[in-house]
Write a structure and sequence with these properties.
heterodimer; A: alpha/beta; seven-stranded mixed β-sheet; four-stranded antiparallel β-sheet; 39% helix; globular; B: alpha+beta; Sufe protein. Chain: A; three-stranded antiparallel β-sheet; 48% helix
């Protein structure tokens, strides 16, 4: 077993060597511009792109023709939200989303608010789930878009995409899904789920960084978006710019492998997730699960360790790469907005740690990590005034703290 | 975020972790910060003839908060109450090479020292007035 151990697969993943191998010829041999229509260099590059496009389209129940390549999911989300708001502005200016969407959706929505659009952020329950009845009652005549993610990047909670898509289709509203954390991990079918726009990224599924895609439905209904990038009319005019051919080829290979291994990997990763959770709760007290107990990404576990601050815990397990919702790990000094929106107290948000499992994670690594975390939590609780007070029977909510 | 060597040293081997019985004679307890802010420090001093003879701390917070309070206990030990009152957060910042985003940890440590001394004085005064 090699140290350090990477348990942050929701942040990014290493490129699979099989993916890298598929990409290499497209740097040095097949280097043509896929938009060069008049020579073999261009044709060969275009062939690589076309194959990848088809694989990616089919992976989500669509076709290659529906796929628009971007620089990543952040661009895809911006394109979907801003591009569709611009195109449909005559039809209406109301957009529905949720407060725990990725910032790549929340921030463009807030930018639109400044321009006179109205955004409704639905409530989420303590597990991070939206209420379908509230979604239904929030849709109005002037609602043009519902943007809800497949799986949450911090807490792993899954949205009921099929039910959401049924509602939006019945009411004639377009449905954008940020599926960055879902594609290749859980089954996604844009036809069955009535998804009209879908964002994805290669680097979350063992592909290269810097390449992503937006699915834009072509029929029933035909979805239109205004481009946010101009200059050459590539990608059906939706996204100008020379195609990142090696990236696209790698993305195709990555999604092909992820689809082949999806069910076996999901089972294996759920096993590791449950094992880690069991060890934490068996061997430590005051451990709280963030996110939904079962309706969650196979590879995500998010826990709060009561009375231990997240950054200090990460410092104590420096051989293990995880991430925390603690304010101290962010430059803003604000704890995770996702946990806050779910009603998790700031105190427990400060104590939260996200574990992400992946293709190369082994049970041996999970057990090693568990040992280290248990030791670190126990050590930090020995020096935690809060843990001491709780042991003495003090009700922390009744103490008059000096907020700063 | 990269930590300075001194912060790592205090985090790995914190000085004077523990508690005194807060009702014991000569003990002053300072409890500052708030759980929802992510930092709570408890700093205690034991005073004999206006000299701080021992100090203990417990801290809930990031590595810099732990290091700041650990350092504070080291510094107050052996000082008179007046000398301890004059410790400034900027000295802690300098000693631990804290980045700007962590300056509040040093402020909290200074507050903890002052709160402990103030508690000691209050208890002493009430004893005198009762006695």
């Amino acid at each position: 077993m090699k140290l350090p151990i990477y348990l942050d697969y929701n942040a990014t993943t290493p490129t699979d060597p099989r993916v890298l191998e598929s990409m290499l010829p497209f740097f040095t041999e097949i280097y043509g511009n896929a938009a060069s229509r008049n020579h073999s260099f261009g044709w060969s590059a275009e062939e690589g792109v076309s194959q990848a496009r088809n694989i990616i389209g089919e992976a989500i129940g669509a076709t290659g023709k529906d796929i628009v390549f971007t620089s990543g999911a952040t661009e895809s989300d911006n394109m979907a939200v801003l591009g569709m708001a611009e195109f449909y502005r005559e039809k209406g200016k109301h957009i529905i989303s949720s407060p725990i969407e990725h910032k790549a959706v929340v921030d463009p929505c807030q930018a639109l608010e400044q321009k006179g659009y109205e955004i409704t952020f639905l409530d989420v329950d303590e597990h991070g789930r939206i209420d379908l009845k509230q979604l239904e009652s929030t849709i109005r005549e002037d609602t043009i878009l519902v943007s809800l993610m497949a799986g949450n990047n911090e807490i792993g909670t899954l949205n009921p995409l099929g039910e959401i898509g049924q509602i939006t289709r019945d009411r004639g509203v377009l449905f954008h899904c940020d599926a960055t954390q879902g594609v290749g991990k859980i089954p996604i079918d844009v036809e069955r789920m009535n998804i009209d726009l879908l964002s994805m990224s290669a680097h979350k599924i063992y592909g290269p960084k810097g390449i992503g895609a937006l699915y834009v439905r072509r029929k029933k209904p035909r979805v239109r978006i205004s481009p946010i990038m101009f200059g050459g009319g590539h990608e059906r005019g939706f996204r100008s710019g020379t195609l990142n051919v090696p990236g696209i080829v790698g993305f195709g290979k990555a999604i092909e492998l992820a689809m082949e291994e999806m069910s076996s990997e999901a089972e294996r990763q759920i096993g590791m997730r449950q094992h880690l959770y069991k060890r934490m709760t068996d061997e430590l007290d005051y451990v709280f699960l963030n996110g939904h107990p079962t309706e969650r990404l196979p590879n995500n576990l998010n826990l709060s360790f009561g009375y231990v601050e997240g950054e200090s815990l990460m410092m104590g397990i420096s051989e293990i790469a995880v991430s925390s919702g603690s304010a101290c790990t962010s430059s803003s000094l604000e704890p995770s907005y996702v946990l806050r929106s779910m009603g998790v107290s700031d105190e427990l948000a400060h104590s939260s740690v996200r574990f992400g499992f992946g293709r190369y994670t082994t049970m041996e690594e999970v057990n090693y990590a568990a040992d280290k975390i248990i030791d670190a939590v126990k050590r930090l609780r020995e020096m935690s005034p809060l843990y001491e007070m709780v042991q003495e029977g003090v009700d922390l909510s009744k103490v008059s703290w000096t907020s700063h | 975020m990269a930590y300075s060597e001194k912060v790592i040293d205090h985090y790995n081997e914190p000085r004077n972790v523990g508690s005194f019985e807060k009702n014991d004679e000569g003990v002053g307890t300072g409890l500052v910060g708030a759980p929802e802010c992510g930092d709570v420090m408890k700093l205690q001093i034991k005073v004999e003839k206006d000299q701080i003879v021992d100090a203990k701390f417990k801290t809930f917070g990031c590595g810099s908060a732990i290091a700041s309070s650990s350092l504070a206990t080291e510094w107050v030990k052996g000082k008179s109450i007046d000398e301890a009152m004059s410790i400034q957060n900027t000295e802690i910042v300098e000693e631990l090479s804290l980045p700007p985003v962590k300056i509040h940890c040093s402020v909290l440590a200074e507050d903890a020292i002052k709160a402990a001394i103030s508690d000691y004085k209050n208890r002493k005064n009430s004893e005198t007035s009762e006695g």
